């Protein structure tokens, strides 16, 4: 980078901010030929040490080679490229002939390799003057008379919206929510007072009621607007937006209803930007026509600060700290006088009076410690307040449920309570027992928190077509983990009959518990929400909900054919496991154990499957339904790699196009609920990077092929989908085995390389020794033979403990450490898997 000098600056350039950098654009003629017109750009990045903007990159592009043509910049802005699914800076330039009869426009994009590439070209018989917008798509939109025109890559030509507007406002929905739209009053010369408020999407020309975004009275006075959030609920658009009006007001709307207003200090607002300053909240930055700027806090909706004499204002992360700052440029010579601030402690200025405050000595240490102490007290007080509010809501809900129950009893009505309501009720006669238990806490401190033997919390079963799923919820002590967990089913058809063991297929899932080990479970573990506690209490180590406990769900699937021998069958469920004394004990030294989990009664006349009919509930039944589907459905895992396009829209595509909905009990799973249990499909999308992800599909083989066909049609051609060839339990074991094999091979190769030089020297000596003809008939010959044998003995000792060069030995140790680290990581993953396998 080089320091940006004042003589290097362009005259009156167009500026935009992108990825924490400022990009300057300007047009000028070639100084050598004075014929061709060039578009020049320069990227600038801020350096804190020098408190200046430094040049990061620059370049030029030839726009016209004719001397008579006049080239000018219309507008530049960063927008989303829908095809590449990435944001990029765009610039719109116009080329006018000598007579001024036609105007040719070009939309260029600046690539990541600092090249100006053409994007859209079109011609107009008139010149764009006001209200020219570059929106997502990219889409170029402008007004001419009472008509609104636009062009984009998808359109391929200049198109006119089907409605004439007497007054229009342009906006766009946030990323992955929709597209560019225009709101306005429809022109009606006969009855101007009855003009309608209509909205129109530019992509498909679809009309909608504009009052869902802005009420009718605000359309005619709105100067600019910004949509904050948008979503479609039952084909109805719900959004929040802010709009700056000609009455010097900033208005906050929710679904077309005014929620708050703020009086603006200046007139003629031009555009609004949102700055996210992290934990200090969000700001609305409003730029006005005469170079005024004001910042309004989103939480209080009050003016926080104002500035005047501003030529341009930008919102971006210029300091690279993860939050947004405002950059205010105060003169036409770019970045000679500027201010970077977030109104929350960050302030860097150059060429301004506020620069003196930046160079002042830092505050004393006791002042900073006082601020930190006050901030900690404020955070702790806020935490206590939130806990009190949560307990107040729980008590209020319990009181309402209790009153409703008493009313039903008095009215002789049978109370109908859901599972959530039952979990929220408190038995009044438990209070005395609880007080006694709390009084004995001090006497029971020496007793273990939980038994080392697994505890059965719940036993349940489901019938899914021709199979039965049996599940057990277990609570185990993490200090003495269990491994090789499985379920077996024993049938009891009569009192004198011998129990028969039915062949089953078991699976194990982690359930969330307040223990650190649950966060380190395998990626295939299913995460479910805990039922809400009946009563808020302080943590006590003697209760089962201790931090040293973990919860598991074990399922077993079996066919119904062996069970259909009688009208009613009783089945005993047995849990098989291996108890280890601690987390690092060997499995081979442990003895197998079993646990009687209880009995289930199977009635063949009541086979009704009601799986996942209420997606919005977080009840135990919903959790059991999901576990049953995961146990029955086949599972495929696909790795999706997209080198050129972002994959952030796959989750929304599965929900909207495929028609899936999220499960409230486990939000990472998406369910496609069709008729019949066999038609159900479960999806789980894991975003690894913006360009890589892993998709798990739980369904039948035919449904998986149909879904994969639709997914391939949606994804770009450059994307690649690879199936992950692994079973439920083979992944970590195979990785561990390969790591051990690589460690052994690496050790063998490294030692061989160290000894190769010694072997070569020994071979040379051996060859030289063979060339000597030893004479054993004389005393001197025997003495010579004895000396050769002694040298061979010493050489053999050296080969057993050779002297190795220090540099080569260090390389050996470094290489072996790296290989052993990978082996240790694979062993850790295998150990975590065997805790529940």
Commentary on this structure:
The chain has about 850 residues and is an alpha+beta fold. Among the domains are: about 1-150, Lipocalin (Beta Barrel), CATH 2.40.128; about 450-535 and about 545-620, Immunoglobulin-like; about 635-730, TATA-Binding Protein (2-Layer Sandwich), CATH 3.30.310; about 730-835, no CATH class. Helices cover about 25% and strands about 35% of the residues. The chain is built from eleven helices and 43 strands. The protein has a six-stranded antiparallel β-sheet with strand order 39-40-41-42-38-43. A five-stranded antiparallel β-sheet has the order 1-5-4-3-2, with no helix packed on it. Strand 24 (about 295) and strand 25 form a beta hairpin. Helix 9 (about 730-770) packs antiparallel against helix 11. The longest helix has about 45 residues, at about 365-410. It is extended. The two termini are about 55 Å apart. Residues about 5-10, about 355-365, about 430-450 and about 515-545 have low confidence and may be disordered. It comes from Parambassis ranga. InterPro entries: FANCB. One of its GO terms (biological process) is positive regulation of double-strand break repair via homologous recombination.
